[in-house]
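[SOLVED] Predicted holo structure with NAP

Edit: marking solved, answer below. Original request kept for reference. I posted the sequence and ligand SMILES and asked for the 3D complex as structure tokens.
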Amino acid sequence: MEKVRWGLLSTANINRRVIPAIRQSARGELTAVASRSQESADSYAHHWDIPHAFASYEAMLASDVVDAVYISLPNQLHAEWTIRALQAGKHVLCEKPFALTLADVDRMMAAAHDTGLVLTEAFMYRHHPQMKLVEAFVRDGRLGDISLIQSVFNFQLKSRDNIRLSPELGGGSLWDVGIYPVSFAQCVMGGPPEWVFGFQEVGDTGVDEFFAGQLHYGHGRVAQISSSFRTPFHTRSVVVGSKGRLRMSRPFTNVEESEMVFYPDSGEPEYVDIPEEPLYLGEIEDMHAAILDGKPPYISLAETRNHVRTVLALYESAAAGKPVFL
Ligand SMILES: NC(=O)c1ccc[n+]([C@@H]2O[C@H](COP(=O)([O-])OP(=O)(O)OC[C@H]3O[C@@H](n4cnc5c(N)ncnc54)[C@H](OP(=O)(O)O)[C@@H]3O)[C@@H](O)[C@H]2O)c1
């Protein structure tokens, strides 16, 4: 196999970002889309110039025109279709949040292990040069001992008819956008927190429309995270250490507009140059390296499991009004 043939499992909005990345990549081609009706699959395939259109997800998985699938379904359906895709012999790039229970994550990991196929979580920002620079700052000790992370992802969800507001489909601001700050903190701190404390505002939709969490990593290290569907778009991350702090204005999305500044202990702030790269390209190239070259995916399933574990602990804490140990 010289190229990876991709199939889109659904006609989700987010595909608009991933399709150009597959086409920009050196070793990928987009060969198919599956939707819940032939009409929708056909019109999507026509619009995006995709050769094969399937009237069901099962039909695409049973076909031999794709090697890998991108799962962009509502959160509640990630586990079922990831497992079905792996069992049908397809490699899987699954959107975040990977799954909504640890039992599902474990079933997904077992399916990947049993089939020997590639499975990884689609956290595009982790592959971008901006995040690699953050990791280098931490690794090289330029920030000193890190004691605090503050990280936010808010946007205003104007439509009330959205999968993000459905409890049955795994909606909620923490699952949707709060998981970015959670994963950011895990990456910088080098692992999951020891214990967490969460606070949520549940709307009449039945899902959290605002979430604030405090994550404790031991040795006095803390991350404060928040997510919201109720306030205008705002993202930010700050990492504070004994030798200085690093601030990003767009850590997760719209990275091409991001300003990254290092404030050393003394001296002038340093404006860090962020190499340009399409935001979704890295996760696609990473899949190609895993499938074609046998490289381990950049985001391991162990890391992914801890993302889900931390979010579940935060929800449990918010519901109980008490700290929860992981
Ligand atoms: N990484 C990122 O940057 C990013 C950004 C946005 C979203 N996401 C993730 O991507 C996933 C999709 O988000 P989205 O906003 O793109 O979703 P969306 O536009 O609402 O699309 C979801 C798709 O799932 C299919 N579907 C199957 N069963 C469904 C059901 N019961 N209700 C609604 N849709 C159903 C539909 O496709 P068919 O009708 O074709 O079957 C629908 O188009 C989520 O997991 C989200 O967290 C990631």
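OP edit: DSSP finds nine helices and 15 strands in the chain. Thanks to everyone who chimed in.
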